[in-house]
Specification:
The chain is α+β, with helices and mostly antiparallel strands. It has a four-stranded antiparallel sheet with strand order 1-4-2-3.
Amino acid sequence: MLTKLLKPEEFLSKKFTKDNLFDMGKIKITQVKSIIDRPKRQKDTIKALGLRKINQTVEKEATPQILGMVAKVGHLVSVENA
C-alpha cells in the first residue's frame, strides 16, 4: 500500500471543523532528525509524541492537539496518512 508523504504544512493547511474532525483518521509520525542541540520545548514535544529515536514511527489519531505538536517539530519529523 502506497501512501503519499505529506509535509506538516500541507497536512495542517487543511481546514478542520467539528463535523470532519472525527473523519480525519490516523497519521504516522516518523522522527527523521536528532533532538540533540534542540530547545527543551522541542525535546519535550518529541517525547510527548512517543518518539525516542531516529526512524522510529508512531501512529496517532489526527486530533488538533497532535497536529499542533507536529507543526511545532515539523522540521524533525515526517508525516503520512495511516
